[in-house]
Amino acid sequence: MVGTRNIDRTRTRSGRPQVLAIVLLAWPALVAWERVDLGIPGAVQAVAVDPGDPETTAIVAGSRVLLSRQEGPWRTVLVLPGLSGAEAARWSPEALDDTGVPDRPSYETDAEEDDEFFDEWDEEDDEEKFSAVSFEDPSACEDDALDSPRLAFGAGTLWVASSSGLYRVLRSTPTLVHAQPVRGLSVHGEAVVASDCTRLWISLDGGETWRSRSLSRSGAVSVHAQASVIAAAGDGGVLMSRDLGRTFAWMAGPSTSGIHELAFTGEGELLALTDEGLFRSQDLGRSWRLEAAFENGRRLVPLADGGWLLTFDGGLIRHNAAGTTDPIWNGETALDAAAGRQVWVVTPSGLFREGEPHGRAYPSSPRDRRELRLLVENAFRQLVLDPDFDHWERRAAWAPWAPKVTLFWVGDGRGAVRDSNPFEGDALLHATATDRAHMEVFLSWDVLEIVRGPLRAELISVRRRHESLRRAMHRQVRLAERERERLIGLLHVRPPRDVRDGARRMLAIQEIDAVREGLLSPWSEAMSAGRMQ
Amino acid sequence: MKLERMVACVLLCFGLPAASEEVAERRAFRVIDEVGAVLDRFRFEPSVREVQEAAIRQAGIDPAMLRSWRSRSRLAALGPQVRGEYRQIERDDRRLRTGGGLPDLLNDNLALDARVLGRVHWNLDRLIFNPDELRVSREVADLVRLRAGLVDQVTRLYFERRRLQVELVLGESMELTDRLRAELRLEELTADLDAITGGWFSSALERAERMAKW
Known about the structure:
Number of helices of chain B: 8
Strand order of the largest sheet of chain B: 1-2
Order of helices and strands of chain B: HHHHEEHHHH
Distance between the termini of chain A: 61 Å
Largest sheet of chain A: 5 strands, antiparallel
Helix content of chain A: 10-25%
Structural class of chain A: alpha+beta
Number of strands of chain B: 2
Radius of gyration of chain B: 38 Å
Oligomer: heterodimer
Distance between the termini of chain B: 21 Å
C-alpha cells in the first residue's frame, strides 16, 4: 500500500562540509518521494533492488525480510533471529535523534593525494573449501557484526547478511549459509563475497561452493566480477585480488581509520568510505585520493549502471554513471538506499521511493537552477556594477594606439632699447618692440605600451577577484535555498512538537530568508535611489 | 505573517498524512498559530532588512558612491591636463669702448622678453581604457565582500537576539539565574547591533516601543 507523500529533495547540513563540496557541483533534479506504507510494525532497516529484475525489491523491516515483485504485496521470506536489546533500542524511532535545526552551514572543499605502496602478500595456504554451513561460536564476533542487516541480489538470489549469519533466499526459500555475524557482503552475479570478523568468504557459483581466507578484523567487501577483482577491508589495509580470490595482495588503506564500505564503480574505480570521508582509488588501491571529507557516511551502494549511492546522516547522494552527483534526499538521515528503475531510501521515519519527476515543488521550493542563476547574476551586476571583462580587455588592448595629444600656445613679446654713449649729450637712442604668438600640436604614442600590450596581469587579478566573489555568491545562495528547502521539508516530515520547537524552526527559516534576500536584492529601492536615511 | 501562511500551506498541501494522523495535524496547525502569535509580539521592532541596510549605511557602502566611482573613472580622461606659464626675461647689456684716440663710447642695450605659454594635454588612450577602472573595480569587489560579511553578521546577531526574546517569552518558568543570563545576553546583542548600525537600532527600538504602547 503506497500512501503518497511528497518529500523534500535537497538539503545541506552543517557539520559535514565537504560532502557539499561534491554535492554543490550539481543542482539536484526535482525528485518527488512517495512514502511506502508497509503496514507492519518495526522500523525499516535495509532495502535492495534486484539489478536483474528492477521490479523486485527486498527490505528488512523489524526482524522480517520482505520481498515484493512488480509492485505486488510484500511477502515475508525470512524472519531473522531477534535483534539484541541494544540493537533493537538503536532502531526504535524514539532513539533516533531529532534532526532539529542546525547551525548555519559553512562549507569548504578539501582534497589530498595519498599515494601508498603496493605490497605483495605472500599467499598463505590457509584456504578452505567447503559447501556446507560453518557453525562457529557466533558470540565471538558479535561486537563486529553489522549495525543493521544488509541485502544484496545476485543471479536471482537474495542474500541477507545480518548479525545472526548469512542467508540465501532462492525462490522465496531461505537457507542459512554461514552462522557467524557477517560484517561485509557484496554480490555480483554469481560471485558472492562476505566477511566475518576473521575470514573472507568467496563463492563464484552463487553460493554452491565456498572458499575462505583468513583476514584479521575483516570488514567491508566489494566484488567486481566482470573485472575479476575482489577487495576486502582488513585490519590495516585493503586485501585485493585480481583473479576472483585465487591470489591476494595487501594494499595500504586510504586512512588510518577503518574502512566501513567498499564499492567498485562502473569504471573499475574503488571507493572506500571511512571515518574521514570518501576515498577513491583509480589503480585498485595503490593510491587513494580523498574525494570528500566527512564523518557521518553510512552506506555506499554501487549501482548496476556504474553509479553509486551514498547515504549519510544528512541524506542521500546519487552519483550517476555520467559523472554528475546530486543530493536527492534531504531532511533526515538516510540509513540505506537502493536503486532500480527508481531510488529507494530508508530513513528513520520510514521507507520512501522516488516517484515520477513531476516538476511540482513546495510553495517554498527553490527556484529552478536557471532562474536562480539569473537572480544571482542580476544581484552580482547590481553589486559590482556589471564589469564586462572581455570588453575591458579589448579596450585595454586598443588603448595604447590612441595618441596623447598636447596643444601648446606660445605668446612672445620683446622690447629693446639701445642707447649709445649715454654720457654724451648727443646720445643716440634706438628702441624696438616685437610681439609674436604661435600654436603647436603634438601627437605622441608610447611604443613601449603598444608593444607590451594591456596589463593582463592586473586584468586577470581583478577578474579573478570578481569571479571568486561571484562564485561565493552563487554558493551562498544555493546553500541558503537548499537549507531553506530542507527546513521546510522537515516541517512536513516532522511537524513542530511544541511552540518553542516551531518558533525555533520558523526563525531559522526566516534567518535563511534574510540571508538569501540580502544576497539577491542587494540594494533596496531607497538605497538605490540614494535616499539614505 | 507570510512565512506562517507558507508553513501552513506546506502542512496542508503536502504534510497531512492519512486520517489517522488528524490529531497530529490539528496540533501542528495549533502550534503554527501559537508560533505566529509569539512572533507577532515583535512586529513593531525593526525588520532584519532594515537593520541590514542601517549597518550598510553606517559602513559607508553606498550604491550611488560605487556607481559614481565607476563613471568618474571612465570619464576622467575627458578632462585635459592644463598648464600655464609666463616667463619674463630682462636684459641689460652695457658695452664701453675707450682709448685709441677715439672718444669713449658706451653702448647700453636694454631688452625685455615676455613669453606666455599654455599647454593642454589629453591622454586619449585613457578615454578608451583607464587603468583606474581596474582599481575602482578592485575596491568595489572589496566593498561588496565587506558588505556580505556585514549582512551576515547583522543577520546572525538579529536572529540570535530574536531567538532569545522568544525564549524569554516562552520560558516563563525559567530560573532566575537563567533569566538573568538571557537578559544580559539580550542586552549584549542589542548593544552589538546598535554599534554596527551607529545607534540606529536603539532609536528604532524606542520608536517600536512607543508604537507598541499606542
